[in-house]
Design goal:
Helix content: 10-25%
Order of helices and strands: EHHHHEEHEEHEEHEEEEHEEH
Bound molecules: the ligand Nc1nc2c(c(=O)[nH]1)N[C@H]1C(S)=C(S)[C@@H](COP(=O)(O)O)O[C@H]1N2, molybdenum atom
Oligomer: single chain
CATH architecture of the largest domain: Alpha-Beta Complex
CATH topology of the largest domain: Sulfite Oxidase, Chain A, domain 2
Structural class: alpha+beta
Length: about 300
């Protein structure tokens, strides 16, 4: 079995540069969209991005052009065209609440952390999925630096609120409970699979994928993986979150991928991998049961959607 992660080696960096070169050569030749194919070719020759179950990563082009990011509207195929105005620097992330050493991190400091590559499955509650080669570091590493207090039981995340640059925060969608917020139980947040992503496919994160910093929790529905993080707080009570406030019937706090629990709006038995035609069965915990099922021993996963 392929390991879930590998650290970024000098060869890895070399590949990244090679990929960029091939990509820009394709652009110069006027092939435009061919850059991601050039990229895939270069990866396959040497070390393809494959998850531990053998699935190849979704193409970079698809990952960049099919997005859920309500701050930029509801049309998944248009998000990438609307993010250009978002100002990604300067950027700071405040980490506070019930911890002994609350801190403000400058983005540069976070991006200087050593990173790993993790090829993760991503399953949206709407029934589509992708395989994404993330680059990032475990959230645990950040939380340990602020020293959570014994009373901290949950972690609350908050995304950027900047209506001037985020059209979904104005007009009709402006009525949603902005800013986008999410939460995890502290042990979920400390789990090794839980990442802060800084990039994908060996490149810096694109705005539409949640730049400059984004949460990734691969065994939960995609809405837990909050983009554009600006604040992280350790708290005592289970936090209410954006989608739970907006539509409690269709969204829950735990949101562990579970083919046996459907929501009124979506059945969850199967999913369509973006780029594929036939649906495939959805796996409990999105295929990560071996690593995470123990976190929920004794919990009624039907009740705690
Ligand atoms: N801030 C913010 N984060 C968000 C969302 C959002 O609307 N706003 N959508 C979520 C949902 S529903 C999904 S499926 C994933 C999509 O991530 P991707 O576009 O990088 O594939 O982002 C999640 N994170
Ligand atoms: Mo989603």
């Amino acid at each position: 079995m392929k390991p879930l992660s590998r650290s970024i080696t000098p060869e890895g960096l070399y590949l990244t540069r090679r990929e960029l070169l091939l990509g820009s050569a394709a652009m110069l030749l006027g092939l435009g969209a061919a850059s991601s194919h050039a990229h895939q070719r270069s990866q396959k020759l040497i070390d393809p991005y494959v998850d531990e179950l053998g699935s190849h990563a979704t193409s970079l082009r698809r990952i960049l052009r099919y997005n859920n990011y309500y701050e930029f509207g509801q049309d998944k195929e248009k998000v990438f065209k609307k993010v250009g105005k978002l100002q990604l620097r300067p950027w700071i992330v405040r980490v506070g609440g019930l911890c002994h050493k609350p801190r403000t991190f400058a983005l540069e400091e976070l991006l200087a952390q050593p990173t790993e590559e993790r090829v993760y499955r991503h399953r949206c509650v709407e029934g589509w999925s992708m395989v994404i080669p993330w680059e990032g570091f475990p959230l645990r590493r950040l939380l340990e630096q602020v020293e959570p207090m014994g009373s901290a039981r949950f972690v609350r995340f908050r995304a950027l609120q900047r209506p001037k640059q985020m059209p979904g925060q104005r007009g009709l969608l402006g009525k949603l409970p902005w800013p986008y917020t999410e939460g995890l139980r502290l042990d979920e947040a400390m789990h090794d699979l839980t990442l802060l992503a800084t990039g994908l496919y060996g490149r810096p994160l694109a705005a539409q994928n949640g730049a400059p910093l984004r949460l990734v929790v691969p065994w939960k529905y995609g809405y837990k993986s909050l983009k554009a993080i600006v604040r992280i707080d350790l708290v005592e009570q289970l936090p209410t979150t954006f989608w739970v406030k907006a539509s409690p019937k269709n969204y829950g706090f735990y949101a562990n991928v579970n083919p046996d629990v459907s929501t009124p709006r979506w059945a969850q038995k199967s999913e369509r991998r973006v780029g594929e035609y036939k649906r495939r069965p959805t796996l409990p915990f999105n295929g990560y049961a071996e690593q995470v099922a123990g976190l929920y021993a004794g919990m009624d996963l039907k009740r705690w959607f």
